[in-house]
Design a protein that fits this description.
Elements (H helix, E strand, L loop, with lengths): L2 H4 L2 E2 L3 H19 L7 E4 L6 E4 L16 H7 L1 E4 L1 H7 L6 E6 L2 H12 L6 E5 L5
Parallel strand pairs: 1-3, 2-5, 5-6
Antiparallel strand pairs: 3-4
Length: about 130
């Protein structure tokens, strides 16, 4: 597993990808609101629900001569809502949610997310979607 996956870090491009997903989910709910279908959301590479955004320049603002201290580094950290959280909070919601991730630590974070949405039918499993 890549180090960035284990540390739950995404590139700056992830915001655009996740914003596009959220826009799609909003549109999907509008189209499906009059249908009698059960709506099921499946995310085979769910992640932890939140991800830290990697700075475009790894040493943004710092250098070997003037390194950032830990307070400055923490102030520059940015987190974004991942696909599971966006799916849970978008529109009227789905009838069921299935979240899969291969990393047990991220699954534990998803379980905490599930606890914050007790009215939603959320199923979470440690699984490698590539298999």
């Amino acid at each position: 597993m890549k180090k960035s996956h284990a540390e739950n870090v995404v590139g700056p491009w992830a915001r655009q990808k996740l914003d596009a997903l959220e826009s799609y989910l909003v549109a999907y709910h509008k189209v499906m609101k009059k249908q009698k279908f059960k709506l099921i959301y499946i995310d085979a590479f769910a992640g932890a629900g939140w991800s830290r955004v990697r700075a475009p320049d790894q040493d943004a603002g710092g250098s070997d001569l003037f390194p950032l201290d830990s307070d400055q580094e923490a102030a520059q950290e940015e987190y974004i809502a991942g696909s599971p959280l966006r799916a849970l909070r978008t529109g009227p919601g789905f009838n069921q949610y299935y979240f899969f991730d291969a990393d047990e630590r991220r699954v534990n974070q998803l379980l905490q997310l599930k606890e914050k949405h007790p009215c939603k039918k959320v199923h979470i499993e440690v699984e490698d979607a590539n298999i």
